[in-house]
Amino acid sequence: MTPPAGNTQNNSYTPTGKTSVRGTLSEVTLYDAFGRVASITRGGIAKTRTYDAYGRVSFISDPNAATGTTYQYDALGRVIKLTNADGTSQTTAYGPATRTVTDERGKATTYTYRSYGDPEKQFLMAIAAADPAANISLTRDARDQVTSVSQGGFTRTYGYNVNGYLASVNNPETGDTLYGRDIAGNMVSSQVGASGVTSYTYDSQNRQTAIIYPGGTPSVKKTYDKTGNLLTSSSSGGIRSFAYNSVGLPTQERLSIDGKLFKLSYAYDSNDRLRSVTYSPSGSVIEYAPDVLGRPTKVSGYVDKATYWPNGMIKRIAYANGTVTSFGQTPRLWPSFFNTETTAGAEYLKSSYSYDGVGNLLSVNDFVDNNMDRTLAYDDINRLVGANGFWGTGVLTYDGVGNLIQQAFGSNSLSYSYDVQNRLAAVNGQRVANLSYDVYGNVSASGGNTYTYDDVPNLVCVNCGNAASKLEYQYDGLNQRSSVSSAGNKIYEMQDSDGKLRMQLDGETLTEYFYLGDQRIAQRVSP
């Protein structure tokens, strides 16, 4: 297979397998005597599976491991037990219209379905949780579409038009939200409660071309290339524009606002792995040296070497200043420890973690300062109810819909109360605040501060009536914050299309943010 650019992919076959090679990346799939996948090895990382006498998957390994997950079935071929790599297990029992799952903590949740006698079409009607206060019930129409969901005395309802598209939602917090649809099902209008109407337009290929908000909220306009990639998304808070290579990967994304231009340029290797990002206006180039699976192994100037566990979790980061951070894994592939050493080998951060069978964090042990040790506890539906640490004993309680109603940490406590619409109304204790809301359900006032939103809704102003503490925000065509203004000073921001903050410009001072994958590693301030 020859792509428009980059390395060609070559496939070869044997009686028991297939090998695909593209540049330095190979993927080998092996089959058993019945033609079932026995293993897949990609970039040197293998996952295997085995089958029982009836052809059902009985084991799937973790990456590059002999351990993994095993499965047991009943006479009807339904999974009744799942055993994890650490020996914990989850069981499932089936009734005429129910499925009860008992998790690794021994807590049972029962799901009730309706199926009209067809086991392949089951529709969830109720969830009976380990804590009855959290039970959920659903109703459905003749098309089996959900028409209501109820929990803890609150109900959300859903309405549909004659074509089966969602036309309305009633939420306790905001009342009715109405949706207009075209014949293709595209949403052409929306209105939340007493707000104005937001309109949406589309081209002949059902791509959204404009969003027209009510009031003074800036509209957004979008254009696309012939293959459907977004080219521009424009708003008064900034114009975002993009360029792509011949295989559709982004090569540039730009933000233009108030005559200023911020740009990120992306370069790839011949296997389409991200090789570098160039920041403009500074011209800074960050190299990533991707491994065979496309994972960055460095951040030039800041990280000399990064390695990974077979499942993709970072294993070790060697920083350019000589500091090294290491991460361990449990048999369930959860983080087991975190350790940071200086160039001299001195440990100044070292913690270990333990978990229960469902992955709730139970303890954090700090080997540098044991005063920072923490233990945590959870209720039957995995909500945090206890947290003990340097603050003393911590206790948290909830209502039936999961709202936090009380927290006490040592001598400090806070209580929370909610209004009839299930919105947080007041906080009392060491801190006191009364809250009010706008039509969209956003907090409009709390603790002496006021908050103003546009019709997106985005926060556009804090304390608009107080010049000394007033903050104003703008948003670009991707609905990402592009500026912050206070006391006559305006700071510009560019986030990438994934929402990671990349640049800030405050007067003549440019701050750039650098990442290893999604983890922010460093920032550079210039001049």
Automatic annotation (TrEMBL):
Gene3D superfamilies: RHS repeat-associated core (2.180.10.10)
Domain Teneurin-like YD-shell: 200-454
InterPro entries from the UniProt entry: RHS_repeat, T6SS_VgrG/RHS, TEN-like_YD-shell
UniProt key word Repeat: yes
One Pfam family from the record: RHS_repeat
Domain of life: Bacteria
Region called Disordered, residue ranges: 1-20
Methyltransferase found in the keyword field: no
Keywords: Repeat
Protein's name according to its UniProt entry: Teneurin-like YD-shell domain-containing protein
